[in-house]
Amino acid sequence: MTSQLALKIKCPVCRKSLMDRQNMLDGYPSIALEAEGNGHRGWLRLSPVYGSYDIESEFEIPPDCVARIFCPQCRSELKSLAACDLCQAPMVPLMLEEGGKIFTCSRRGCKKHFLEFEDIDKALATFYEAYALGGAGQKAQPAVKKAIVEASDLKEIINNGSFLQSYCPHCRHTFACCSLLAFTVIGGDGREGILQLSPYFNVFTNKSTIEIPRGEEVKDLQCPHCGQSLIEKDRKCGECGSRTAKITVGAMHKLISFFICLRKGCTWHGLSDEDTRLIMLEDSREW
Questions:
Q1: pLDDT at 122 over 50
Q2: CA nearest neighbour of 131 among 28, 270, 12, 16
Q3: How many domains does the chain have?
Protein backbone atom coordinates (compact mmCIF):
# COMPACT_ATOMS: atom_id res chain seq x y z
CA MET A 1 0.00 0.00 0.00
CA THR A 2 1.35 3.44 -0.91
CA SER A 3 2.00 5.72 2.07
CA GLN A 4 -0.18 8.83 2.23
CA LEU A 5 1.16 12.16 3.41
CA ALA A 6 -1.69 13.92 5.26
CA LEU A 7 -0.91 17.56 5.99
CA LYS A 8 -2.09 19.57 9.00
CA ILE A 9 -3.05 23.09 7.92
CA LYS A 10 -3.71 26.37 9.72
CA CYS A 11 -4.71 29.87 8.60
CA PRO A 12 -1.73 32.08 7.67
CA VAL A 13 -3.55 35.12 9.12
CA CYS A 14 -5.08 34.08 12.46
CA ARG A 15 -2.91 30.94 12.82
CA LYS A 16 -5.89 28.82 13.91
CA SER A 17 -6.21 25.22 12.75
CA LEU A 18 -8.28 24.63 9.62
CA MET A 19 -8.62 20.88 10.22
CA ASP A 20 -12.24 19.66 10.33
CA ARG A 21 -12.37 16.43 12.33
CA GLN A 22 -16.12 16.10 11.80
CA ASN A 23 -15.80 15.78 8.03
CA MET A 24 -13.24 13.37 6.58
CA LEU A 25 -11.75 13.21 3.10
CA ASP A 26 -9.44 10.39 1.97
CA GLY A 27 -9.75 9.01 5.50
CA TYR A 28 -8.37 12.11 7.25
CA PRO A 29 -9.82 15.31 8.76
CA SER A 30 -10.53 17.67 5.85
CA ILE A 31 -9.23 21.22 5.43
CA ALA A 32 -12.13 23.61 6.12
CA LEU A 33 -12.31 26.81 4.06
CA GLU A 34 -14.86 29.17 2.54
CA ALA A 35 -14.99 29.79 -1.19
CA GLU A 36 -16.55 32.46 -3.36
CA GLY A 37 -17.04 31.97 -7.08
CA ASN A 38 -19.57 31.67 -9.86
CA GLY A 39 -21.83 34.08 -7.96
CA HIS A 40 -21.98 31.97 -4.79
CA ARG A 41 -20.23 31.72 -1.43
CA GLY A 42 -20.16 28.72 0.91
CA TRP A 43 -18.06 26.11 2.67
CA LEU A 44 -15.26 24.26 0.92
CA ARG A 45 -13.42 21.15 2.12
CA LEU A 46 -10.11 20.01 0.68
CA SER A 47 -8.39 16.66 1.09
CA PRO A 48 -5.33 17.00 3.36
CA VAL A 49 -3.49 14.24 1.48
CA TYR A 50 -0.63 15.78 -0.50
CA GLY A 51 -1.21 15.06 -4.19
CA SER A 52 -4.95 14.38 -3.79
CA TYR A 53 -7.42 16.73 -5.50
CA ASP A 54 -10.62 15.55 -3.81
CA ILE A 55 -12.89 18.39 -2.65
CA GLU A 56 -16.41 18.91 -1.33
CA SER A 57 -18.24 22.22 -1.59
CA GLU A 58 -21.56 23.78 -0.63
CA PHE A 59 -22.12 24.93 -4.20
CA GLU A 60 -20.90 23.67 -7.55
CA ILE A 61 -17.55 25.11 -8.60
CA PRO A 62 -17.32 24.55 -12.37
CA PRO A 63 -14.05 23.61 -14.06
CA ASP A 64 -11.79 26.59 -14.84
CA CYS A 65 -13.56 28.80 -12.27
CA VAL A 66 -11.14 30.97 -10.26
CA ALA A 67 -12.39 31.05 -6.67
CA ARG A 68 -11.62 33.43 -3.83
CA ILE A 69 -10.70 31.54 -0.67
CA PHE A 70 -11.36 32.68 2.91
CA CYS A 71 -10.57 31.47 6.43
CA PRO A 72 -13.86 30.33 8.05
CA GLN A 73 -12.70 31.58 11.45
CA CYS A 74 -11.19 35.05 10.94
CA ARG A 75 -12.92 35.60 7.54
CA SER A 76 -9.68 36.87 5.99
CA GLU A 77 -9.19 36.31 2.28
CA LEU A 78 -6.28 33.95 1.70
CA LYS A 79 -4.35 35.31 -1.24
CA SER A 80 -0.75 35.86 -2.25
CA LEU A 81 1.17 37.90 -4.80
CA ALA A 82 2.29 34.69 -6.50
CA ALA A 83 0.55 33.59 -9.69
CA CYS A 84 0.28 30.01 -10.92
CA ASP A 85 2.97 29.39 -13.53
CA LEU A 86 0.62 27.01 -15.37
CA CYS A 87 -2.56 29.10 -15.68
CA GLN A 88 -1.69 32.52 -14.13
CA ALA A 89 -4.48 32.31 -11.52
CA PRO A 90 -3.68 33.59 -7.99
CA MET A 91 -2.04 31.09 -5.64
CA VAL A 92 -3.69 30.48 -2.25
CA PRO A 93 -1.29 30.33 0.74
CA LEU A 94 -1.91 27.96 3.64
CA MET A 95 0.35 27.34 6.64
CA LEU A 96 1.63 23.94 7.70
CA GLU A 97 1.33 23.29 11.43
CA GLU A 98 4.82 21.75 11.31
CA GLY A 99 6.30 24.90 9.71
CA GLY A 100 6.37 26.27 6.18
CA LYS A 101 3.60 26.96 3.67
CA ILE A 102 1.77 25.19 0.91
CA PHE A 103 0.52 27.17 -2.08
CA THR A 104 -2.32 25.82 -4.21
CA CYS A 105 -3.86 27.25 -7.37
CA SER A 106 -7.26 28.94 -7.04
CA ARG A 107 -8.47 27.71 -10.45
CA ARG A 108 -10.74 24.64 -10.30
CA GLY A 109 -9.08 21.80 -12.17
CA CYS A 110 -5.51 23.17 -12.05
CA LYS A 111 -3.26 20.81 -10.09
CA LYS A 112 -0.42 23.23 -9.38
CA HIS A 113 0.75 23.32 -5.78
CA PHE A 114 4.09 23.56 -4.04
CA LEU A 115 5.67 23.64 -0.60
CA GLU A 116 7.84 26.49 0.66
CA PHE A 117 10.17 26.46 3.67
CA GLU A 118 12.33 29.16 5.23
CA ASP A 119 14.61 26.60 6.91
CA ILE A 120 14.77 23.55 4.64
CA ASP A 121 16.88 21.36 6.95
CA LYS A 122 14.65 22.00 9.97
CA ALA A 123 11.49 21.49 7.92
CA LEU A 124 12.65 18.18 6.46
CA ALA A 125 13.67 16.94 9.89
CA THR A 126 10.21 17.87 11.22
CA PHE A 127 8.51 16.23 8.24
CA TYR A 128 10.53 13.06 8.75
CA GLU A 129 9.38 12.84 12.37
CA ALA A 130 5.74 13.63 11.52
CA TYR A 131 5.31 11.77 8.25
CA ALA A 132 7.84 8.95 8.09
CA LEU A 133 6.37 5.45 8.24
CA GLY A 134 4.71 5.04 11.60
CA GLY A 135 4.64 8.80 12.25
CA ALA A 136 1.56 10.75 13.28
CA GLY A 137 0.84 11.91 9.73
CA GLN A 138 0.77 8.42 8.28
CA LYS A 139 -2.02 5.88 8.28
CA ALA A 140 -1.14 2.68 10.06
CA GLN A 141 -0.37 0.05 7.46
CA PRO A 142 -2.02 -3.39 7.67
CA ALA A 143 0.14 -6.16 9.07
CA VAL A 144 1.62 -8.41 6.41
CA LYS A 145 3.80 -11.47 6.46
CA LYS A 146 7.47 -10.75 6.09
CA ALA A 147 8.90 -11.49 2.67
CA ILE A 148 12.40 -11.87 1.37
CA VAL A 149 13.27 -8.71 -0.56
CA GLU A 150 16.23 -7.61 -2.57
CA ALA A 151 18.25 -4.63 -1.31
CA SER A 152 17.08 -2.60 -4.32
CA ASP A 153 13.43 -3.10 -3.24
CA LEU A 154 14.16 -1.10 -0.09
CA LYS A 155 15.32 1.93 -2.06
CA GLU A 156 13.20 4.87 -3.11
CA ILE A 157 13.16 5.24 -6.89
CA ILE A 158 13.26 8.62 -8.63
CA ASN A 159 11.20 7.88 -11.73
CA ASN A 160 11.59 9.45 -15.15
CA GLY A 161 9.56 12.65 -15.35
CA SER A 162 9.59 13.24 -11.57
CA PHE A 163 9.70 16.91 -10.58
CA LEU A 164 12.97 17.61 -8.75
CA GLN A 165 12.73 20.16 -5.94
CA SER A 166 16.20 21.66 -6.46
CA TYR A 167 18.17 24.01 -4.21
CA CYS A 168 21.57 25.66 -3.96
CA PRO A 169 23.87 23.61 -1.67
CA HIS A 170 25.33 26.89 -0.34
CA CYS A 171 22.44 29.32 0.30
CA ARG A 172 19.60 26.73 0.03
CA HIS A 173 17.57 29.02 -2.24
CA THR A 174 15.43 27.22 -4.81
CA PHE A 175 16.60 27.21 -8.45
CA ALA A 176 12.97 27.06 -9.65
CA CYS A 177 12.00 30.01 -11.83
CA CYS A 178 9.09 30.18 -14.29
CA SER A 179 8.69 26.37 -14.49
CA LEU A 180 12.43 25.85 -15.13
CA LEU A 181 15.65 25.66 -13.09
CA ALA A 182 17.77 28.80 -13.57
CA PHE A 183 21.57 29.00 -13.16
CA THR A 184 24.30 31.51 -13.96
CA VAL A 185 26.58 29.95 -16.57
CA ILE A 186 30.08 30.95 -17.70
CA GLY A 187 30.78 29.71 -21.20
CA GLY A 188 34.09 28.39 -22.48
CA ASP A 189 34.84 31.83 -23.94
CA GLY A 190 34.26 33.55 -20.59
CA ARG A 191 30.89 35.05 -21.44
CA GLU A 192 28.25 35.01 -18.68
CA GLY A 193 24.60 34.17 -19.18
CA ILE A 194 21.57 32.39 -17.78
CA LEU A 195 21.11 28.65 -18.31
CA GLN A 196 17.66 27.16 -17.82
CA LEU A 197 17.14 23.41 -17.43
CA SER A 198 14.04 21.26 -17.17
CA PRO A 199 13.16 20.47 -13.52
CA TYR A 200 11.91 17.01 -14.53
CA PHE A 201 14.15 13.98 -14.11
CA ASN A 202 15.58 12.64 -17.39
CA VAL A 203 13.97 15.45 -19.42
CA PHE A 204 16.91 17.21 -21.05
CA THR A 205 15.39 20.37 -22.54
CA ASN A 206 17.43 23.53 -21.95
CA LYS A 207 17.90 27.08 -23.14
CA SER A 208 20.58 29.69 -22.58
CA THR A 209 21.10 33.41 -23.13
CA ILE A 210 24.58 32.68 -24.53
CA GLU A 211 25.59 30.21 -27.21
CA ILE A 212 27.06 27.01 -25.82
CA PRO A 213 28.22 24.69 -28.63
CA ARG A 214 27.26 21.04 -28.28
CA GLY A 215 30.12 19.08 -26.75
CA GLU A 216 31.64 22.14 -25.02
CA GLU A 217 32.32 22.00 -21.29
CA VAL A 218 31.20 25.23 -19.62
CA LYS A 219 33.74 27.04 -17.47
CA ASP A 220 31.46 27.44 -14.45
CA LEU A 221 27.91 26.97 -13.22
CA GLN A 222 26.83 29.23 -10.35
CA CYS A 223 23.87 29.90 -8.10
CA PRO A 224 22.06 33.00 -9.42
CA HIS A 225 21.19 34.04 -5.84
CA CYS A 226 24.44 33.78 -3.85
CA GLY A 227 26.91 33.65 -6.77
CA GLN A 228 28.73 30.57 -5.41
CA SER A 229 30.18 28.05 -7.87
CA LEU A 230 28.39 24.70 -8.02
CA ILE A 231 31.41 22.82 -9.40
CA GLU A 232 32.30 19.68 -7.46
CA LYS A 233 36.07 19.38 -7.85
CA ASP A 234 36.32 15.80 -6.61
CA ARG A 235 33.59 14.35 -8.85
CA LYS A 236 33.98 13.66 -12.58
CA CYS A 237 31.34 12.66 -15.09
CA GLY A 238 30.90 8.90 -15.23
CA GLU A 239 30.46 9.01 -19.02
CA CYS A 240 32.89 11.55 -20.48
CA GLY A 241 35.19 12.51 -17.60
CA SER A 242 34.19 16.19 -17.64
CA ARG A 243 33.78 18.23 -14.46
CA THR A 244 30.45 18.12 -12.67
CA ALA A 245 28.21 20.50 -10.75
CA LYS A 246 26.39 19.61 -7.53
CA ILE A 247 22.87 20.72 -6.66
CA THR A 248 20.69 19.71 -3.73
CA VAL A 249 17.46 17.80 -4.36
CA GLY A 250 14.68 16.97 -1.91
CA ALA A 251 13.90 13.25 -1.79
CA MET A 252 12.94 10.67 0.81
CA HIS A 253 12.39 13.30 3.53
CA LYS A 254 15.97 14.56 3.20
CA LEU A 255 18.22 16.63 0.98
CA ILE A 256 20.46 14.62 -1.34
CA SER A 257 23.43 15.59 -3.51
CA PHE A 258 22.67 15.37 -7.24
CA PHE A 259 25.49 15.71 -9.79
CA ILE A 260 25.20 16.83 -13.43
CA CYS A 261 27.82 16.92 -16.18
CA LEU A 262 29.09 20.33 -17.34
CA ARG A 263 29.56 19.26 -20.98
CA LYS A 264 26.63 20.27 -23.16
CA GLY A 265 24.91 17.24 -24.64
CA CYS A 266 26.07 14.79 -22.00
CA THR A 267 23.09 13.36 -20.13
CA TRP A 268 25.01 11.73 -17.26
CA HIS A 269 23.90 12.41 -13.69
CA GLY A 270 24.60 10.72 -10.40
CA LEU A 271 24.21 10.62 -6.63
CA SER A 272 26.69 10.52 -3.78
CA ASP A 273 27.81 7.08 -2.55
CA GLU A 274 25.85 7.63 0.66
CA ASP A 275 22.62 8.50 -1.14
CA THR A 276 22.82 5.53 -3.55
CA ARG A 277 22.30 3.24 -0.55
CA LEU A 278 18.80 4.69 -0.14
CA ILE A 279 17.81 5.97 -3.57
CA MET A 280 17.91 4.67 -7.13
CA LEU A 281 17.49 6.58 -10.37
CA GLU A 282 15.20 5.07 -12.99
CA ASP A 283 17.26 3.74 -15.93
CA SER A 284 20.31 3.68 -13.66
CA ARG A 285 22.94 1.05 -14.43
CA GLU A 286 22.55 -0.06 -10.81
CA TRP A 287 19.51 -1.96 -12.07
A1: yes
A2: 28
A3: 2
In a domain, 145, yes or no: no
Residue at 161: amino acid letter? G
What's the CA dihedral at 48, 50, 52, 53 to 10 degrees? 70
Looking at the fold, whether 44 and 88 belong to one and the same domain comes out as yes
Both 271 and 161 in one domain: the answer is: yes
Q: Taking the model in full, what pTM does it have?
A: 0.50
Q: What's the confidence (pLDDT) of residue 259?
A: 93
Q: How many CB atoms lie within 10 A of CB 116?
A: 14
pLDDT at 68 over 90: yes
- Please indicate, yes or no, whether residues 90 and 24 belong to a single structural domain of this protein: yes
Q: For residue 259, give its domain range.
A: 152-281
Query: Is 162 within the bounds of a domain?
Result: yes
Distances (CA, A) of 282 to 163, 193, 202, 285: 13, 31, 9, 9
Q: How confident is the model at residue 241 (pLDDT cuts 50, 70, 90)?
A: very high
pLDDT of residue 171: 85
User: Which residues are CB-neighbours of 103 under 8 A, at least 6 positions away?
Assistant: 80, 82, 91, 92, 93, 94, 113, 114, 115, 116
> Which are the contacts of 241, defined by CB distance < 8 A and separation ≥ 6?
none
